[in-house]
Amino acid sequence: LKICFIFTKRFTIPQTRRNEATKFLKGATTYHLIFDTLEDQRDLHYDDEKVLIVHDQKIAILICLFITYESKICKPGREGVSKIPTALEYNETYTQVINWGDLSLDEELDDTIDDLNKRSRPIELFKLHLSNLKEDQKPWLPLQLDYRKVIVDYFTQMQILIKSTLERRWPTISFLQQVGLILTIPAEWPPHNTTVMRECAYKAGLLTTLNSTHLEFTTEPDVIALYCLNVKGHNLHYGDSFLVADCGDDTVDIITRKFLQNNRLNEITKRVGDLCGFTFVDKEFLHFLERKVGIQALEKLKQCEYGQVQYLIKRFFSTRIRFKFNEDRECFRIYKLNLQHYCPSLPQYVTGEFKEQMEEVGWIVKLDFESVKGMFDPVVDKIIKLIDGQLNDVRERCRAIFLVGEFSESPYLLSRIREAFKDRVSIIAVLALPIAAVVRGAIIYGLNVKPTHDLSDELDNLNKIKTISSRVFEKTYGIKATRKWNPSDPIERKLSDGMINIFLQIAKQGNEIPIDTGISMIFSSNFISRNSIDLFITDEHDVKYCDSPGVNLIGTLKISTPSTIKNSAISITLFFSNITIKVVAQEVDDKTGWKYETLFNNISY
């Protein structure tokens, strides 16, 4: 679950210079994920400075990019390494953060602490608590912590690092007044989670007020679309459709778009996603070990010696297998895993028949081709099923499948996808620098979108980038309406006045809508002044009532019309923009010039 922050100093940059910076960032030969120097520094001459700090929790990269005369990288805990895990280490009572990032997941085996009760287990993958996973499938958390507190603590550590870094470089910057935050979120997150993230950012000291306009949300597929527009070498033409699969550590997001003139894209399918990133391959590896040493033994190792589990995954599975395994059975060599080397404490937890078997083989576990394939297949099969569903929804031939994200660099994943779809799609490729796709797209977004100061900016930002031409509704939207009850309606729903409340559909799942087009409804001013309007969202089809299973209330719209407006027709228009819905109410004949605007946040459509 990827979170990307862009911090931009709030000043005006001339459009010519903005374009120059954007063009510079797009160059694959000059813009690298890790900067020691900028090769084209001589080409940039800014009187003002702009600061972009991108933090991507999915691939755990933290970059400080200074588009002036120098660049720096902030990597707490380890110089020269680009990845910073979204992990925290607390004291033994889980009341204070000791380390974060790499330092919280020290890969070296530590025997200095003899009392196991004084060892705290690092907190990892806490982002998955924001997902739709069942409770028993969510990552472990100690009883002393809930996931919101962990997110706040992580943001707090990030905030400390960012502020100190900016202070050294730009001591005159007022962080809370001059720095904007753009947070990218997975498309499949439940709608309420933007509220959770905003609250956590506020509590961590990243915002002065809870509703600060210095924090904006956008979705990962949108910034990936920006990145895809600038990828060359695949000979896409106007009118071609292509599928993008963002395969990360936790989630996989898939969407199909059509390439239009003037560098614009149409969404032609609704986004789909699932929890099937590479960390789930890691879990299959651990399940394999459970069958060798016993579930209880491995759980005890996690509880008491979690660092050894991390050491095993990082130094053995990730390094030797995860991104090297492919379908070439003939070239495959059997891996021999010495458990006593990677997990020296494990034997003391293994009992009974498991212990006898492991002692017979000298605590060596062999991983043959079928064993490793069995770790990948359950996860890869899910991804292939998602892609197949998308291609089936496209009414025309899809020309290309592009893979981005860290898991996309798995040779096995690529070969399986090519084998599955080679007869349906002519181009199947991993884009250049796939791990940085969201980061690079977010940087382009940050350079081209002005900070939001009022509601009208929300749509202006999308129009300014002019990338997404239309969207496809992922949900069905409706309002509560009242009509006359008839005999075919349930008798128990009949109101005392002979009416019935129903779900009135205003936008249907799967339908396409231009990005700058709204959905309008007409009400009388008398009705508006006396009643509120409830807006609902659902994944269900053929919904009849607002309290039906799977129907959720987004919000309630209460509009106060001025006393000068009587017996007038009021137009209420909903503009669907990114992850928000902008509501505009005004008189149809515009006699008084009255206009009302508000914003529904936390929308995933």
From TrEMBL:
<protein>
    <recommendedName>
        <fullName>Hsp70 family protein</fullName>
    </recommendedName>
</protein>
<dbReference type="InterPro" id="IPR043129">
    <property type="entry name" value="ATPase_NBD"/>
</dbReference>
